[in-house]
Specification:
Blueprint lengths: L22 E2 L19 H22 L15 H22 L6 H16 L6 H10 L2 H9 L5 H15 L5 H6 L6 H49 L5 H19 L5 H9 L7 H12 L2 E2 L13 H26 L3 H11 E3 L8 E3 L2
Antiparallel strand pairs: 1-2, 3-4
Helix pairs in contact: 1-8, 2-8, 3-8, 6-8, 9-10, 9-11
Length: 367
């Protein structure tokens, strides 16, 4: 049976990588729908390349905007099909390893391959300055020497695992000290190797999160240029990949133009906003109108702008807060309507207080 990957879990993708579709509510008359993109003659390798670029772009975007972003291990539900399949395959592999080690004479073929993978995992945890420790690991876990010892019946598997645990204790973050110490009490070599892989996966995740924290300031300084470059690469491969963004901006331009002229958006205003035959709104006003439209977006009928799919969850959270505030405000007004007009006026006066910019004519509404 082929050996499954020693890691039981994989880091999950950040939220927003597969955002849902959405549609604006009655925030003005809808503009024309963008035509569907024509099919592209792309090979499987090209599609995979595009998918990888989008994933990397989404990951970098999440790292920049979410200061609390961390990679986490995905744990399947105990009763899920994925978990049952994973447990069945892993149990079969580790039971087979246990039989090989317990045989007479022992068969260390799979164990040596695991030691090679453990060596590579330990080396991946080292920093560039750890030259001496790198040499020690290379020498202590020399796979060719280990294979020769196994052929002559002189392999000390317990001594090797002891060295591995000591090295893990040296490299792990303080939060993993207890996990590493818990491995010291395991006497079954197969079980010990399995648990070593489990803790090593946790340590690799810790190292990835440390690298993310270190890279975040650099990514923040170059995020705009990076995302512009990646979006341009995507457009070069799929020229119609931003159709929904174009439609979203066109509708926002029509509404912003209509606001300047004091009329409601219609087809003529849409053509004027885009073609320049009427008063042109500023780019800032178009973007402001577009983002306001996103606050009343309804799913299922129009596609979300492609350039904002990575932020759809954040924008939907803002939308939920806006709707909650509207609901609370409506309930408050309805409640006050049951009181006398004089009581309502006095209550309004009591809540209208000077804001932080006193002396500049600014005031804040505090309820």
């Amino acid at each position: 049976m082929p050996k499954p990957s020693p890691g039981d879990e994989q880091p999950q993708r950040p939220a927003g990588a597969e955002a849902a579709a959405g549609r604006p509510r009655d925030c003005g008359e809808e503009g024309p729908r963008a035509s569907a993109s024509p099919p592209q003659d792309l090979s499987v390798s090209e599609l995979q390349e595009i998918s990888d670029k989008i994933y990397k772009l989404t990951l970098a975007h999440e790292i920049v905007l979410n200061g609390d972003f961390k990679l986490q291990m995905v744990n399947f539900s105990p009763f899920s099909l994925e978990n049952r399949v994973k447990e069945t395959l892993h149990k079969a592999f580790w039971d087979s390893l246990k039989e090989q080690i317990s045989a007479s004479p022992p068969d260390y073929t799979q164990a040596i391959q695991l030691l090679q993978e453990i060596k590579e995992a330990l080396l991946s945890l080292l920093l560039p300055r750890h030259n001496q420790l790198r040499s020690q690991i290379e020498e202590a876990l020399d796979v060719e020497l280990i294979r020769q010892e196994a052929e002559h019946g002189a392999l000390d598997i317990r001594g090797l695992t002891t060295y591995i645990l000591d090295t893990m204790a040296m490299l792990c973050a303080p939060v993993r000290d207890e996990d590493v110490q818990g491995l010291q009490s395991l006497s079954d070599p197969a079980q010990l190797l399995r648990e070593i892989f489990r803790v090593l996966d946790l340590m690799k995740t810790d190292m990835l999160n440390f690298s993310i924290q270190s890279l975040r300031p650099h990514l923040q300084d170059h995020s705009i240029q990076y995302e512009q470059k990646k979006f341009q690469e995507l457009i070069d491969k799929l020229p119609n990949s931003l159709d929904h963004t174009t439609e979203w901006l066109r509708e926002a331009a029509a509404e912003a133009s209509a606001s300047l002229s004091g009329s409601q958006p219609h087809s003529a205003a849409l053509q004027g906003a885009v073609g320049g035959s009427t008063a042109l709104p500023s780019l800032t006003s178009v973007l402001n109108q577009g983002y306001m439209n996103l606050l009343c977006w309804e799913p299922g009928q129009k596609e979300y702008p492609e350039t904002l799919l990575m932020d759809q969850a954040r924008l939907q959270e803002v939308q939920a807060q806006k709707e909650k505030s509207e609901y609370v405000g409506t309930a408050w007004v309805q409640d006050k309507q049951q009181e006398s007009p004089l009581a309502v006026e006095e209550d309004l006066r009591s809540k209208w207080q000077p804001g932080p910019l006193q002396g500049v004519g600014e005031a804040s509404w505090r309820i």
